[in-house]
Amino acid sequence: MSWSQAFADMDAELLDEYGERVRHIPTKRAVNARVEADPAKAAYELIGIFEWQQLRLEILKGETRTKAPPAAFYSSRNPVLGVRREALQYEVQEGDIFELVDRGLAFEVIDPQPDGTGWVFIQLNQRGRHIQAGLAP
User: Fold this and answer.
1) Cα–Cα distances in Å, from 88 out to 2, 34, 50?
2) CB of 135 closer than 8 Å to CB of 35
3) CA proximity to 114, closest of 135, 84, 137, 89
């Protein structure tokens, strides 16, 4: 068995165990306009792994001219969706919408980050607790 096949099998097991149905709605936005579904790109469903809060720590370099300490910490607690790159029909863009199909929640993409191993980890922002899935304001 090759390494790539071993990773593919492991990814399939992860998605089977922790995955849930999500709907990707590609969007477009004119300058200073509201986000809207892109009519040229149909929405579609795929399986992803959703985490409500992911703690991310980054070490920031200090300013060398002022001899500031070389380590400062920043944390973020944005929801994150992990999907297999091959499952995406369109490249994920900032502003796209992902719906958690079975939960009826909608999220806007803040920052999609490919990890180099076939996954894309997408930082999300919930579209308001009162907004159900879909593009309704």
Assistant:
1) 24, 24, 16
2) yes
3) 84
62 three-state secondary structure? coil
Q: What are φ and ψ of residue 86, in 5° steps?
A: -70, -20
Q: Would you give the DSSP letter of residue 132?
A: B
- Residue showing tokens 């909608």: 106
> What gap in Å lies between CA 80 and CA 46, rounded to an integer?
15
Q: Find the angle CA(94)-CA(71)-CA(82) to the nearest 5 degrees.
A: 30
**pLDDT tens-digit map of 70-124:** 555 555 568 899 999 999 999 999 999 999 999 889 999 999 999 888 899 999 9
User: The pTM is what?
Assistant: 0.73
Q: Cα separation of 116 and 45, whole Å?
A: 23
Q: What is the SS3 assignment for 128?
A: coil
How far from 93 is each of 79, 102, 108, CA to CA, in Å? 16, 23, 10
